[in-house]
Amino acid sequence: MTASLTFVGRSLRHSVRSIDALLTAVLLPVAILLMFVYVFGGAIDAGGRYVDYVVPGIIVLCAGFGSASTAVAVAVDMTTGVIDRFRTLPIPSGAVLTGHVTASVARNVVSTSLVIAVALIAGFRPEVDPARWLAAAALLLALMVAISWMAAAFGLLAKTIEGANAITFVAAFAPYVSSAFVPAESMPAGLRWVAEHQPVTPIADSVRALTMGTPVGDELWIAFAWCAAGIVVGRAAAAYLFRQN
Amino acid sequence: MPYTIEVEGLRKRFGNATVLDGVDLQVQAGEVFALLGPNGAGKTTTVRILTTLLAPDGGTARVAGHHVVREPNAVRAAISLTAQEAAVDGMLTGAENLRMMARLRGAPKGIADDLLERFDLVEAAGRRVESYSGGMRRRLDLAMSLVQRPQVLFLDEPTTGLDPRSRRAVWDAVTTLADEGVTVLLTTQYLEEADRLAQRIAVIDGGRVIEQGTAAELKARIASEVLELHFADRSQRIPVNGPDDVRRALEAHPDAERIELHQPSLDDVFLAVTR
């Protein structure tokens, strides 16, 4: 426990001190939000006000994108000698990964809050219902934890920092082929199939339904199931790869 | 008597390359032991196995009485490693690095300040380590290995690439630790370093220990003296035992302009036993 907490502190310090990464994590989602609302928004017909449609999608994008930076942080650790020092300590193996993942979730909570604040200024008008907000927050948190563990595993697999960066692109582009920004029904058949079956769609739809007060169906459980699967698989893969390296 | 480090028939392959081909070592408690060898001899691989970072393919290794494969955490509790590449966190300050290690080792917090003092890092304590020079990094690295006094300290080429002043600082630290009773296993390519610090030396090449003993024993084993022949454009060292050898060497090299007779250095041992 002490070891994990120590590593959380270390990773948080890293987060605060890598100014460029911090700016990317915080400003990029805000920039994307503003772009979708004010640049593309006027031309997209999603039924109803577009800002209300797109903000949940941006929040999901932001969570995914921010968590993916964990891959780079882990890869940096693995390519420097410092990891050998941690591995030769009598502490639970993988405590250093717990530190990275926890700090990643903390970073994302901050940037997601900022996105929501800017969205409110830009005209986002969610339903006020604490129970639904709590459910949405729990889902987003689960998503952040899942992507952070997957990213940690990827960072261990990547061998190089450049390679680890690749997952950032997957995390940044996957939401575009989903219902995050435009309804899946508006896409050509092939893409539509992808959009309807990939995890971002039920997650974005659930966050949207929860915040806008529309009926929530099975997609919420599907969304949670995807996140749970991500956490289990990502964590197991990360633990395995950490021992192998 | 039980050895602090006991290695028998250690083997390791990476793909088709045999890196360790049956390494045997015995290191006594409180001893400074040097593993001497050229690049690629298997020194680092040996250290990585002994510090639980790598699993061997064959053979057994015990450190501080514990089996490195079966009881890695017991081994880790007894050792510290200072690897070839400085294992410091560049984004943290020197003081933060030391405090982090103290927490991870369960050592008192005040140890960080003591170590900053001891390794001449007080002024740089509040600066991020990425701005440190190579020598400062190495000193911090060593300090981080000492937040809790280890029973066994592993130093993998601790002075490679250091300027003479930093090298001396590392040597002083090793000597102090040895005086305090810490068992030290260090690897080096520098014969001077092995000669100066270690009570016993193992020469390792091609994944095997080819000579083992004190510096004096190793030197005596190749020859009683070394004849150095100076030519117009080069010089050559030839191990000799007695006047007959000297005579033969001179007859074989009639163009020698000047000769010197030396005690064998570890360099001579090294060149004689490694191919």
Automatic annotation (TrEMBL), chain A:
Boundaries of every ABC transmembrane type-2 domain copy: 20-245
Its membrane topology: Multi-pass membrane protein
Primary subcellular site in the record, as a coarse category: membrane
Subcellular location: Cell membrane; Membrane
Superkingdom of source: Bacteria
Entry's transmembrane regions: 21-41, 53-76, 97-121, 133-157, 164-184, 220-242
Keywords associated with the record: Cell membrane, Membrane, Transmembrane, Transmembrane helix, Transport
InterPro entries, alphabetized: ABC2_TM, ABC2_TM_bact-type, ABC_2_transport, Nod_factor_ABC_transporter
Family, similarity comment: Belongs to the ABC-2 integral membrane protein family.
Protein name listed in UniProt: Transport permease protein
Species: Solirubrobacter deserti
From TrEMBL, chain B:
Keyword annotations of the record: Antibiotic resistance, ATP-binding, Cell membrane, Membrane, Nucleotide-binding, Translocase, Transport
Xref: Pfam families: ABC_tran
GO MF annotations, alphabetized: ATP binding
Topological relation to the membrane, as annotated: Peripheral membrane protein
Matching PROSITE patterns: ABC_TRANSPORTER_1, ABC_TRANSPORTER_2
Record-linked Gene3D superfamilies: P-loop containing nucleotide triphosphate hydrolases
Chain ranges of the ABC transporter domain: 5-231
Localization per record: Cell membrane
Keyword Secreted: no
Residue ranges of the TM segments: none
NCBIfam families assigned to the protein according to its UniProt record, in alphabetical order: drrA (TIGR01188)
Similarity annotation: Belongs to the ABC transporter superfamily. Drug exporter-1 (DrugE1) (TC 3.A.1.105) family.
Protein name per UniProt: ATP-binding cassette domain-containing protein
Native source organism of the sequence: Solirubrobacter deserti
UniProt lineage: Bacteria, Bacillati, Actinomycetota, Thermoleophilia, Solirubrobacterales
